[in-house]
Amino acid sequence: MKNIFVTGALSLSVLFALPASAQLKINAAGATFPAPIYQQWFGEYKTKAKVEINYQSIGSGGGRKQFLEGTVDFGASDKPMSDEELNSENGKKLKPLHFPTVLGGVVVAYNVTGVTGPLKLTGPVLADIYMGNIKKWNDAKIAGINAGVKLPDAAIVVTHRSDGSGTTFVFTDYLAQVSADWKSKVGANDQVSWPVGLGGKGNEGVSGLVKQTPNSIGYVELLFAVQNKMPFADMQNAAGKFVTPTFASVTAAAAASKGLAADFRGSIVNAPGAGSYPISSYTWLLIPTKITDPAKKKAIVDFLKWMVTEGQKEAQGLSYAPLPKGVVALEMKQIAAIQ
Amino acid sequence: MSTSAAAVAKPKLASKRLVGGDQVAQVFTCFFAVLILAVTAFLVYELWISSSPSKERFGFGFLTSRLWNPVTDQYGALPYIYGTVLTSFLALVIAVPLGVGAAIYLSELALPKWSNALTFLVELLAAVPSVIFGLLAIFTLVPIMRDYVQPGLQKVFGNESFLFGGPTFGVGYLTAGLILAVMTFPFIISVSREALMAVPREQREAALALGATQWESTWQIVLPYAKLGILGSVFLGLARALGETMAVTMVIGNDPGIHASLLSPGYTIASVIANEFSEAGGKYYPSALVELGLVLFALTMIINGVAQLLIVLTTKKGSAKA
Fold it and tell me: What sign for the dihedral angle of Cα B183, B185, B188, B190?
């Protein structure tokens, strides 16, 4: 009997002793869209640098909230911090630095009976569809930019995200830029009061609705649409060209955009340049300016340097658009600002 | 051996030990009981405190406002309360006749062998996670509703009619009500059957002896006797329907409007909390969602309380004599 207890206690102590000798642990939380690449980066960084970064993909809003409440070492978000958030008590204390990590695009997916070729849409037409002003697929405004496409005389079933999401922010941010009506009546946010349409939870909820409902339209992440082989529309950009969303056209938009401020906040929707896809966005890591624990500071700084250089090479493998070269150089400068 | 010998030799000691054990048991079980109460009280307290910014800003207007706009930070609960109550009501309208009918068959008419096997299956159905029902609903129920049931209803009632007008998406109040009915009737069958089984045998025998047919005995004697238990089962089902989240979120359409047509998309309290809470920022947005939780909590508390009371009443009446 005694022996069993002794071996039991010994093996238990071994079990509990192991984590004590293990590596440094860093907690992070935030956006779901870049979560796959973050998990891969953090996994590789763990074997490389013996630093464990535990990332919880709880959503952009949750990431910003937890960062400000100080429950995580750093946050991640598809939407930069607002001035209000930066000027809050904790925002002033933490002085978050924004580090763009990869780029994403939001595509307009559709399921229109009889339409096989790529549909073309402009920003104002898309805004009118989501405002409920354009109700039918064969509306003159849609037919006018889709010569040769046989559009059905059917009602448009509009779908959108029902959960708050960085994807919704990018999409509504774009609509607000191209339509004054949308800007004043609806606005841009993680979650808005939709004039029309059905809500689906997550990218999979929206894509489920679009796939299942004839004559529907919806918006999802580019990555998600590519993986699920959904048909999506070519969008007219600020230069007047119709551009197919690809990783190249998203990176082109980032390179051409003047929307990014010196602190890396800002939006790059409706970017200039003939090859730019207009509904593109950065996604950010939020790092506090001052990291008191020197071991954590070193680990985070090393990770950031690795992420903007070596890490970028992996982005495309996972179907993310990599950062433009100019941004990488600027980020290296900002890394030096971490105290 | 030695302990029993000691107990015989010194009976006082044994009884003392027993008294001590009883006291320990009393203290422990009392602690557990209080703990459950404390958890509930803490829950209410937390909901109350966390929702105070929203309560202060919107007051009772929160319950009657139809506006839900995170951009302008204005929130009202009415579309969600409407959706929750309507879908739960639809679920009961469908599930009660089905559930009570099935319970009558299982307790009164079926062979015991069949009854036991079927009851086992029904209870299995009650244990299926709701997300499974949701997936089934999306991939099978929604297309059937959109392509056959909803156009069929519109053919019969007209596509401008009050209850069945408007475009047919497949998702909406009626679809949510249907999936909720499927999810609640295992509870209704299970509890109603127990209540019917608790009706004393003498009641049935007396009815038959007086010349009643089996149906007359069931309808006029057994059912009224088990009435309260069956009502209790209905309330339990209703409580489940009110709080159901995942399956409803997947098929209701998530549109915060108030529509008369049962084919329109809508929204429920549980769904909007599940959808929006993780991304809700600012001062009023999360607090308005918590206040919605408080509203739902109040609704379910009242219904559960009534159900508990009914069940207690009927089991006293039925099983005491059986």
Answer: negative
